[in-house]
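Recap from last week: sequence in, structure out.
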Amino acid sequence: MDSFSKSAPWRAPVAAGALDAVVELPGSKSLSARALLLAAVADAPTTLTGLLRSRDTELMLAALSVLGSRFEDLDGSGTRLRVTPAPLPLHVQTGSDGVGRIDVGLAGTVMRFVPALAALADAPVLFDGDEAARCRPMAPLLDALADLGAEISHLGKPGFLPFRVGPGDGALLRAEGARVAVDGSASSQFVSALLLLGALLPGGLELTPTGPVPSLTHVGMTVATLRERGIAVEEPAPGAGDGERTWRVYPGRPRGGQVMIEPDLSNAGPFLAAALVAGGRVSVPHWPTSTTQAGDAWRELLPRLGGEVTLTDGLLTAHGTGRLTGIHADLSDVGELAPTVAALATLAGTQGHTSALTGIAHLRGHETDRLAALATQIRLLGGDAEEIPDGLIIRPAPLHGAALRSYADHRMATFAAIIGLGVDGVSLDDVECTSKTLPGFTDLWAAMLATAGEGGTGPDGASHRELETPGDGA
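Predicted structure tokens:
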């Protein structure tokens, strides 16, 4: 299956001065995916408000529709949906061959979360996606589903897309006291997928990862989301080691009702980072006081990179002067933030600072091998980047313009945009891949930069210029 069409190369704009902007961001990709999936199997209809509408969520909506759920746009924005859940076993929309088909695109949540649900369907479902998706590991999840009784057919290289998931003899719908182990070292999504499945099994599920699990914040988000919808989950005892941690999900259908989705705090990163590079301030409203999103770590990371962060009445503001510092950071729990941190660290290298980003070996299995991609792009810019087993070392070096690649990876595209703020002559082959999680990125980026020189840089200056995500719900 093909990726979405690409545009002509985009020339990243250089910051013309200190910024003074408020950037209104759409809903969290991670929370939207979990909310949609739980609504699709809930005990009653659910109304979702603040839903992200992007390529990833469009793929999730299409996938869940194949499994029998229905979605109604309540106000024409696409961000407020009424979800009618599907009964169990899930009724698959099949072709003449009796097989359902789901396009996962390059969406990790679709390719990992939905196959687990498909094991509860009344017909087999074939999964495939973009060319780059066929390189992303799937074996641990597929092996775990097979251990639980699903029928797994590998249609290409074993452990990768394309594959087919079938109900087998229906063992999962009869499972009492199901237990399974999964190797979660390549992705926390394997753990989350099985936790989301567990409540739908008659006796629930005990799940034990056999190795280290990166991005545990995302597993915590899954647990919190289940609990919010009325599902009881027991987490591992504090201090339990790898292979000893067990999650217990008790049976039950998630509650329907009203669900409000927080703004995407990870997507806030590039905009907040812009204040550190250009100087001035950039704010994001509706920042939650308590959240399971990895992006909340910006409050701790940005000050270590040379900025100042304030949070007042739900408005998070990053203040910067253009002076950056290096950082030595273990990003194992917040790996999705690494490309933005790497961009700031690369620019800090022009000011004589060395940075080390560790705990992110699992990024090799994301939309692209992000560690190799980051190191390659930094070197194209004239920078000094060394790929190490679990991360990157970025050393001082002058930078120059270059034609950069996105690798069809939205985080690599925003990496290039941040670099372009401080380095003239940076272009990007495919900025439209940002629509994976943030449609209208270039318009929002340009509007933020248009505020240069419009206001003060201090926390007590004049009101910011407010920018909202351009959007038609697409």
